[in-house]
């Protein structure tokens, strides 16, 4: 059995993961401003479990955690222990209602894009062993250790929730260099990994694959899979040139580039960029408006910034233009929105 996705994660995902990571950062003594700096994430998104965020925003948040907490080996394992099957929505229900561990694993990997994982995963059967491999392709180098630790610890939590017991691993191979202290890895995996290996590989007995699951309900599983299929297709549809531009705009909140500048960075002519966005049902003006609104909500939640300063950061020549735009977006002026957010938090 092999599940080797041809694509990486979709551009969009649930905000629940960034909620968990932000709370993890707060528990480590970081401020919420330090956690969210430069991510474009708003307090509204953190408080709404039904909202979606860009995957690039979560990577920015992880980068903030890694930079702030320093080179602490195993810190990603602590973060990953906060991920349980109940945090994955319809994907989690689909796994819970699967008849066997094998079918749950196959379904889970088929719709891996609905999870919060950045590592690619695939299953390989080798005689009486099953190997779960983690692929770190596409993950920024400085984030690989944290993300591998988080994704693997989260995976083990999911399997523990499915089976009602710790997954009995036979062997764990990691590409990471051996740390001075392996205790966090032993606590999370149940055994001491082999470090500095060619692959990230978790090995278990193939007998576990056909173990029945206590919540098996094939009819419910089929219905959940249909929902998973529709949701994942929707998320992939929203990837494309528009997503690239949105991500670049969100990554430069202090100076939003114009269309000509973005076209040069993407090796496109402005005319080609405009035409391709039109094919995707979008435009640079709409994307800029969307990003300005998201950044405005974040900046208004930040103490110490005047409306004039926020308007300047968003590229408005006059603060009155910003106030007019914000009233059109939210139905109230920015100072009232700021007051309402402070009262809510």
What does this structure look like?
This protein has 345 residues and is of the alpha+beta class. It folds into 2 domains: 12-235, Alpha-Beta Complex (H-NOX domain); 240-344, Homeodomain-like (Arc Repressor Mutant, subunit A). 52% of the residues lie in helices and 8% in strands. The protein has helices at 16-27, 32-36, 43-47, 55-69, 75-80, 90-96, 101-110, 144-163, 183-189, 218-237, 241-250, 259-265, 270-279, 284-300, 307-313, 319-330, 334-344, and strands at residues 12-14, 52-54, 120-126, 129-135, 171-173, 200-205. The strands form 2 sheets. The chain has a 4-stranded antiparallel beta sheet with strand order 3-4-6-5, covered by helices on one side. A two-stranded antiparallel sheet has the order 1-2. A hairpin with a 2-residue loop joins strand 3 and strand 4 (129-135). Helix 1 (16-27) runs parallel beside helix 4, helix 6 (90-96) runs antiparallel to helix 10 and helix 11 (241-250) packs parallel to helix 14. The longest helix has 20 residues, at 144-163. The chain is globular and about 70 Å long. It starts with 11 loop residues before the first strand and ends with a helix. Mean pLDDT is 87; it is low at 1-7.
Overview in brief:
The chain has 345 residues and is α+β, with helices and mostly antiparallel strands. It has helices spanning 16-27, 32-36, 43-47, 55-69, 75-80, 90-96, 101-110, 144-163, 183-189, 218-237, 241-250, 259-265, 270-279, 284-300, 307-313, 319-330, 334-344; strands spanning 12-14, 52-54, 120-126, 129-135, 171-173, 200-205.
């Amino acid at each position: 059995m092999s599940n080797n996705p041809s694509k990486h994660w979709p551009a969009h995902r649930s905000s629940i993961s960034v909620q968990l990571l932000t709370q993890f950062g707060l528990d480590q003594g970081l401020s919420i401003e330090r956690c969210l700096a430069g991510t474009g994430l708003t307090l509204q998104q953190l408080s709404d479990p039904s909202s979606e965020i860009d995957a690039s925003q979560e990577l920015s948040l992880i980068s903030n955690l890694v930079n702030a907490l320093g080179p602490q080996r195993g810190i990603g394992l602590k973060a990953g222990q906060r991920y349980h099957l109940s945090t994955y929505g319809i994907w989690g229900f689909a796994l819970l209602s699967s008849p066997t561990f094998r079918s749950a694993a196959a379904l889970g990997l088929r719709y891996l894009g609905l999870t919060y994982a950045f590592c690619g995963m695939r299953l390989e059967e080798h005689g009486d062993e099953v190997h779960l491999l983690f692929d770190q392709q596409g993950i920024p180098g400085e984030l690989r250790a944290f993300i591998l630790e988080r994704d693997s610890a989260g995976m083990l939590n999911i399997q523990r929730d499915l089976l009602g017991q710790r997954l009995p691993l036979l062997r764990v191979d990691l590409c990471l260099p051996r740390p001075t202290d392996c205790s966090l890895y032993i606590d999370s995996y149940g055994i001491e990994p082999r470090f500095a290996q060619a692959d990230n590989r978790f090995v278990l007995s193939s007998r576990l694959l056909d173990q029945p699951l206590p919540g098996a309900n094939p009819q419910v599983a089929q219905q959940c899979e249909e929902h998973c299929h529709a949701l994942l297709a929707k998320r992939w549809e929203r990837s494309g040139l528009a997503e690239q531009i949105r991500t670049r705009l969100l990554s430069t909140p202090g100076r939003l580039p114009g269309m000509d500048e973005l076209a040069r960075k993407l090796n496109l002519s402005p005319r080609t960029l405009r035409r391709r966005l039109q094919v995707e049902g979008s435009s640079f003006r709409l994307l800029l408006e969307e990003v300005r609104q998201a950044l405005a909500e974040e900046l208004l939640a930040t103490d110490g910034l005047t409306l004039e300063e926020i308007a300047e950061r968003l590229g408005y020549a006059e603060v009155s233009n910003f106030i007019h735009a914000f009233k059109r977006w939210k139905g109230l002026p920015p100072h009232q929105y700021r007051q309402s957010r402070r009262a809510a938090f």
